[in-house]
Design a protein that fits this description.
This protein is of the alpha/beta class. The strands form two sheets. Strands 1-2-3-7-11-10-5 form a seven-stranded mixed beta sheet, with helices on both faces. The chain has a four-stranded mixed beta sheet with strand order 6-4-8-9. It has one domain. It starts with a helix and ends in an 11-residue tail after the last helix. It is globular. The chain has seven helices and eleven strands.
């Protein structure tokens, strides 16, 4: 008779649960507040769904303006390589950070005017317009693996960003949302070369500009492999810290008065998950 503990651990490993725990741990190690298996209501189906990891960075500028950076992370175990489709002819948006409210949008517009924020949260500039999982036999079960694992992760993230739960996480103030797909497996970038031959190279980080927009904005979905996870999360923390000095170099009276109001809001709000409210 097999050992229940051994079979349980084997099940967890085969289904990618340790990787999800590892992703959450890396964000916690750099000082972010983390919630796992965050439940929300899909705005299309009205059914409950889960986002694997949500991490919160909360900063305060020299002008005492509070701002949030929400990392929305879906974790995937890719049994076969993923391919990011790129193109020499595509012109991708230089900045597509996302915020829900007017103050957050003005904040992002302010950041977009500054050179140091043109490629914010980007280590390697591998941009693409599509993502797919390659086909291949799953030797263990002798069947085709899920070819749509990348697509499913994209849809889960977009569904969350459209949901009331995401809006409720930051109803007022200066906040941005950064969607991330963390994957355990191989990632390749593919495009046609000058001779119309397929050019394919392995990468560890990418930015996907998916076709679907939310409120007129196409969120830039970051894709990171396990190989670069630790260094990437540390890099994100450094990028977040830059915002302390840069969001409003010349804050108006309105921003100052709004900061006071928002600080009061944060002191009394109960809509944050308990693990995040201590950020």
């Amino acid at each position: 008779m097999s050992d229940p503990k051994v079979t349980t651990i084997d099940f967890l490993k085969r289904n990618g649960y340790p990787f999800e725990m590892k992703v959450a741990k890396e964000f916690q190690k750099v000082g972010l507040s983390v919630a796992q298996s965050f439940v929300y209501t899909d705005s299309n189906t009205q059914l409950s769904r889960e986002i694997d990891v949500i991490a919160l960075y909360r900063g305060v500028t020299a002008e005492q303006i509070v701002y949030d950076v929400w990392f929305i992370i879906e974790c995937k175990y890719a049994k076969t390589p993923w391919v990011l489709f790129s193109s020499q002819t595509n012109r991708f948006m230089s900045s597509s950070l996302y915020s829900y409210n007017d103050d957050g949008k003005r904040w992002l517009e302010h950041l977009a005017c500054k050179d140091e924020f043109n490629n914010f949260f980007v280590l390697d500039k591998n941009e693409g317009y599509g993502l797919t999982a390659t086909s291949g036999k799953d030797e263990e079960k002798n069947r085709e693996p899920n070819r749509n694992s990348g697509y499913d992760a994209i849809q889960k993230i977009l569904s969350f960003l459209k949901s009331e739960s995401a809006i409720a996480l930051s109803p007022v103030g200066f906040a941005m949302f950064v969607p991330i797909i963390a994957m355990r497996g191989k990632l390749f970038k593919s495009k046609l070369d000058e001779d119309d031959e397929i050019d394919c190279e392995e990468i560890d980080e990418a930015q996907l500009y998916y076709k679907e927009s939310i409120n007129g904005v196409t969120p830039k979905i970051h894709i990171i492999t396990e190989n670069k996870l630790q260094s990437y999360v540390k890099f994100l923390r450094v990028e977040c810290d830059k915002l302390i000095k840069a969001p409003f170099l010349n804050p108006t009276l309105r921003y100052k008065s709004f900061a006071e109001k928002m600080n009061e809001e944060y002191a009394t709000k109960t809509w944050l998950p308990r693990t995040l409210s201590k950020g």
